[in-house]
Design goal:
Shape: globular
Distance between the termini: 43 Å
Number of strands: 0
Oligomer: single chain
């Protein structure tokens, strides 16, 4: 897949980094925030699904920066509280 095509797909699903930044990230010259890495990975995974590739998938971020965790993924003590009432002070 050409970098231009990957970037266009990434940008069309909400990515905000420019094509130059994506190319630099792919070559290991810069880091991207976790959300942008996940969007880029998702763009690549969509293309892999389209061509029915079986050689693996781009991974998604794990850890505290994951903003979109499902309720089932939250620790047990947080499950009964709505997302915006996590008990943390603002």
């Amino acid at each position: 897949m050409r970098i231009e095509d990957l970037w266009l797909r990434y940008f069309s699903i909400g990515g905000i980094a420019g094509q130059f930044e994506i190319e630099a990230y792919i070559h290991g010259a810069i880091a991207l925030p976790a959300l942008q890495r996940d969007i880029l990975g998702h763009a690549l995974n969509e293309r892999l699904d389209e061509i029915k590739a079986t050689d693996g998938r781009a991974p998604y971020s794990r850890g505290s920066e994951d903003a979109g965790r499902l309720q089932e993924d939250r620790p047990h003590e947080d499950r009964d509280r709505p997302e915006d009432e996590s008990g943390q002070d603002d």
